[in-house]
Amino acid sequence: MTETYDITIIGGGPAGMFAAFYAGMRNAKTQLLESLSDLGGQVNALYPEKTILDVAGFPAIQGRDLIAAQRQQLAQFPLTIKTNQPVTNLVPTADGFAVTTPAGTTQSTAVIIAVGNGAFTPRPLNVPNGEQFEQSGQLVYSVPDKDAFRGQRVLVAGGGDSAIDQALMLEPVAQSVTLLHRRDQFRGLEHMVDLLHQSRVTVKTPYLIRGLATTADGALDVTIKPVGQADENHLVVDRLLVSYGFTSDYHVIEGWDVALDRTRRLIAVDSAMATSVPGIYAIGDGVTYPGKQPLIATAYGEAPLAVHSIMDQFFPDRRGPIHSTSLHRPDATK
Ligand SMILES: Cc1cc2nc3c(=O)[nH]c(=O)nc-3n(C[C@H](O)[C@H](O)[C@H](O)COP(=O)(O)OP(=O)(O)OC[C@H]3O[C@@H](n4cnc5c(N)ncnc54)[C@H](O)[C@@H]3O)c2cc1C
């Protein structure tokens, strides 16, 4: 017997987790399929230690605590959650969709794609011997545990939000933090740039990294060069954290048997989060529409839209949500 679900959610990042919770609120028989061994998407995999400031209701919350809270929220409902289950194909059938993972094929009336940007990998530092320093742990691309940086001299390279976040996150625990960027202007949120300038972080701009070597006592010798000048300087640190952003691999969707309308490699959706294929909805970082911002807050907003759209379209006999505001709204015609 093929397992059948009302809703299948592909991708267990913040968007997919919240959609699964919301599907539980609507009593939909739901499965959540995640390719990694753990839920939480980018937040869990790339910045569990970061303090997130822009999630409604939390003035400040660590990435790992936000995902733990989402997990707790999910546990209220009897949902089927399968990790280590990359979806390899999605095929339209008479009753909905056949969803295939390495563990087999299940059937679903509707699908919500919440795969973010697909599998993500950090953009590497372009120096010939980078791999040698990655192996020694002196060149890193993420901070799974900030205590590993305690008392160290750290150089953070990059000019976007995540470089600033990581420099600020390490400042209280590291002996020193230097932030190096190839431009004078940072691309971070204005408030975070203000915090950076008020912090102990030493800002070095506009500089480029030209090479890595080891000092006699085993520290990391980073050759840096001011942009547009010939002279080179050296910075001696314990760790170099490169934060140049991520490249993502969307190939998995390209191999699916459904033809989704895509713009800039993102899935085009309407205001109900519906894709070009009836029955397939999409939310989170992997979608595009006018004004889309790839943020946790927007993903949280999109999840209920997709779930309600599915319930209205495929299960109209099931009662929709009635909030107290709907019950007491004054009649505008009077
Ligand atoms: C360093 C950094 C800092 C950030 N800071 C903030 C911040 O402070 N505030 C904020 O709002 N946003 C921040 N963001 C952005 C935020 O993380 C994303 O907007 C959010 O993670 C999007 O959630 P998502 O669920 O759409 O995608 P993701 O988090 O990317 O999750 C998608 C999930 O789908 C899974 N998946 C992919 N393909 C498949 C498949 N075929 N089958 C099954 N599963 C699959 C992936 O493994 C992943 O777990 C930051 C991002 C980065 C990189």
CATH H-level superfamily of the largest domain: FAD/NAD(P)-binding domain
Overall form: elongated
Number of helical segments with 4 or more residues: 9
Mean pLDDT reading: 91
CATH topology term of the largest domain:
FAD/NAD(P)-binding domain
The top-level CATH class of the largest domain is: Alpha Beta
Q: Any guess at the CATH architecture of the largest domain?
A: 3-Layer(bba) Sandwich
Give the structure's gist in a few sentences.
The chain has 334 residues and is an alpha/beta fold.
Please give a structural write-up.
The chain has helices spanning 14-25, 41-46, 63-74, 130-136, 161-170, 190-198, 251-254, 296-314, 324-328; strands spanning 4-10, 30-33, 51-52, 61-62, 80-82, 89-93, 96-101, 104-113, 119-122, 139-140, 153-157, 176-180, 202-204, 207-214, 220-226, 233-237, 239-242, 246-249, 262-263, 266-268, 280-282, 287-288. It is an alpha/beta fold and 334 residues long. The chain has two domains: 4-120 and 247-328, FAD/NAD(P)-binding domain (3-Layer(bba) Sandwich); 124-244, FAD/NAD(P)-binding domain (3-Layer(bba) Sandwich), CATH 3.50.50.60. Strands 1, 2, 5, 6, 7, 8 and 21 form a seven-stranded mixed sheet that branches. A five-stranded parallel sheet has the order 10-17-11-12-13. Strands 14-15-16 form a three-stranded antiparallel sheet, with no helix packed on it. Helix 1 packs parallel to helix 3 (63-74), helix 1 runs parallel beside helix 8 (296-314) and helix 5 runs parallel beside helix 6 (190-198). The chain is elongated. The N and C termini lie far apart (56 Å). Residues 327-334 have low confidence and may be disordered. Its EC number is 1.18.1.2.
